[in-house]
Amino acid sequence: NKKSFVKTYFHEFDLYYHILDDVALIGYFGKEVIKGSKDVGYEYNIFDANLIEGVGTAFGTGIDISITPKSNLYLRYKNVDYLDKNHENYFYSGYELSAEFKVIF
Questions:
Q1: Cα gap 34→40, rounded to integer Å
Q2: Is the CB of residue 82 less than 8 Å from the CB of residue 55?
């Protein structure tokens, strides 16, 4: 869609290994591509077209716990690297920790 401010594409590869009936260990590799329009982010200049064009990778591990048949707890720990190709000073490398609790009604 050409009207989008930002387009984000995720590509993931996950490995699951059940260690107990209700618990699984997770291995994760992911790649993320972010493309911004001229209306987002940095000051747009028609001569150098400095649009957001980011690429990120993540490696991680986690654990999935089934609490009940309709509720789960997901814990993830990822090492993340991100670079905006058009803005070399916009690079970060760090860690991401997330906890998610899902209940199905």
A1: 12
A2: yes
pTM: 0.70
As given in the structure block, the two tokens for residue 91 are 């690079």
Burial class from Cβ neighbours inside 10 Å (0-12, 13-18, 19+) for residue 100 reads exposed
SS3 of the chain: CCCCCEEEEEEEEEEEEEEECCEEEEEEEEEEEEEECCCCCCCCCCCCCCCCEEEEEEEEEEEEEEEECCEEEEEEEEEEEEEECCEEEEEEEEEEEEEEEEECC
Contact 57, 31 (CB under 8 A): yes
**Other CB atoms closer than 10 Å to residue 54's CB: what's the count?**
20
Angstrom distance (rounded) from CA 5 to CA 15: 33
CA-based R_g, the chain, Å: 18
For the chain, the structural domain boundaries read 6-103
- Tell me the pLDDT tens digit for each residue of 38-64: 777 666 555 556 677 889 999 999 999
